[in-house]
Design brief:
- This protein is of the alpha/beta class.
- It is 46% helix and 18% strand.
- It folds into three domains: 2-96, no CATH class; 99-340, Endonuclease, Chain A (2-Layer Sandwich), CATH 3.30.870.10; 352-516, Endonuclease, Chain A (2-Layer Sandwich).
- It contains 19 helices and 20 strands.
- The strands form three sheets. Strands 1, 6, 12, 13, 14, 15, 17, 18, 19 and 20 form a ten-stranded mixed sheet that branches. An eight-stranded mixed sheet has the order 5-4-3-7-8-10-2-11, with helices on both faces.
- Helix 15 (406-421) links the parallel strand 14 and strand 15 (425-429).
- The two termini are 36 Å apart.
Length: 517
Amino acid sequence: MRVRIEGLWKVLFGRTTIFVFLILIQLAVIVGGIGFLGMKEVLLANYVVGVLAIIVLIYLINNRLNSSFKLMWIILIVATPLIGVPFFVYTRIQPGTRNIARRIEEQISEQRPWLLPEKDTVDRLVIDAGSEYGLFKYMYEEAHYPVYDGCGVAYFPFGQDKFQALLEQLQKAQKFIFMEYFIIEKGEMWGEVLKILRKKVKEGVEVRVLYDGTNTMMNLPKNYPRVLESYGIKCRVFSPMKPVITTHQNFRDHRKIIVIDGHTAFTGGVNLADEYINKKERFGVWKDSAVMVKGKAANSFTLMFLQMWNVRSKWPEDYGKFMFKGMEEDNSVAYGGYVVPYGDSPLDDEDVGKKIYMDILNRASQYVHIMTPYLILDEEMSNTLIFAAQRGIDVKIIMPHIPDKRYAYALARTHYEELIRGGVKIYEYLPGFVHAKNFVSDDEKAIVGTINLDFRSLFLHFECAAYIWHNPVVEEVEADFEETLKECQRITLKHCKETPFLTMACGKILRLIAPLM
C-alpha cells in the first residue's frame, strides 16, 4: 500500500505532471481570454482574423512546407481561425528557434574546410558509382557531408552486441570521447559506460556528454550535468524542457553518436538504457541495430556532435585538433566501398533523411528491405513505397508486433491496407519491439541510423545515419533482415480487416494531427 501511495504521489507531483499542468494553464489563459471580449470586440476580432486567415492560407499554399503539415494547418485555421491564425503566426516568429537555426548554419560554414571530400576519392567515385554519383553529389553540396573511402564498418544486429564493442573501444580512448544521445537512463548500461568515462577523465582524456532535454522530465535528475561535471566530464543538455509554450521544444535531438579519438564512431538506434540491450524487458525482445565506423569517416560524426554541442556556445571551437588524418586498421571491421555519415536538421529547407530514403526506393532494381519502429507516412513517401513495389521491386517492411506507443501503432495500421494493396509486404516481429532504423537494397547499399519512417524523424528531429555503399557490411545488414524475417508474421488484408474498430477509428482520426506525432 505504501509503495502505491508513493507511486501516486510521484505521478501527481512529478516533473512531468507539473510541466503539463503549467502548459495547460497557459493554453487556458490564451483561449479563455476570448471569452472576456464584448460582442463588438468579437465581431471586429473575427473580421481581422478572417483577413489574416486568407493571408496565412495564401502563404501556406505557396510555401515549401510538406503537404501534410499544410493540410493540418489549413484544417486548424478554417475550423478555429481565432486560435489557428495566432498560433500559426506565433510558430513562425519564434526567436529561440531562429537563433538555433542561425547558430547551426554558422557552424556548418565554419566546418566547411574540414568537410571537403578528397579529390582522389571523388575521382574514383565518378568511375565506380555511375548514376549513383548524383546522390553523393547531393549529400555533399546540399547536406554538406562528404563521401569517404578506405574506411571500415562493423554492423551490430542487437543493442547488446553494440554495447560490448562500445565498452572495448571506450577503454582504448587516449584523447577524447564525445557522446550525444536522445536517451540516457540510469541502469547497468549507463553505469558501465560511466565507470569507464570516469576512469578516462583521470587518465587525461577529454570527455563531453550531450543529451536531449526530454531526459530532464523522466530519466535523469535536473542537476545531472553538475553531477557529471563533478567527475570531470563536460556535460550539456540540448533544449531543456521548460513549462512555456514555444516551438523550439518540439525539435528534439534524436541522434545517437559516440566518437572516440576522431577515428572511431558509433551510431544507430541504440540509446543508453537497459531495454536497448535486453537487460530490462518492456515490450518483449528489443530488436535494435548499430554500426561502428573506423577511419576518416568518423570526422563527420565529430563535426555533427560539435554542431549540437556549440548551439548555445559563443566561444569558437578548434575543430582541427579533433580531426583524424591518418589510417585506422582494425580487424573487427570490414573495409571497402564508400561511407557517408550524414545528419538532418529540422531547421533548414532540406529533408535529407526523407530524400535519401526515397532515392533508394526509386533507384532499386531488385529489393528494398526496411526495419522501422513506426510507420507514419506522408502521401509522397507512401506513393514512393507503392510505386517501387509496382515496378516489381521486392519492398518488405518489418514492424513491431508489440508496440511501445499505442497511438503510433494505430496510425501505422491505417497505412497497412493501402501499402499491401500496392504490393508492399509488411511483417510484424512476433518476439517483441523493433527499434532498428535500417534500409538495405540490392546487396550494394545500406543505411543504419536514427531516422524512423515517421514525421518526427523526417521533419522535426535532429537525426543522423551512415550511408554505406559497396562495403561487405551491406551483406550483413541484409542477412540480419532475413534472419529477423524468420521470426515475423506477414500481415495480410485479412489481418487488416481484423484490426479492432476502435484502433482503426482512433488511427484515422489521429492522421489529422499525424505531423505532430
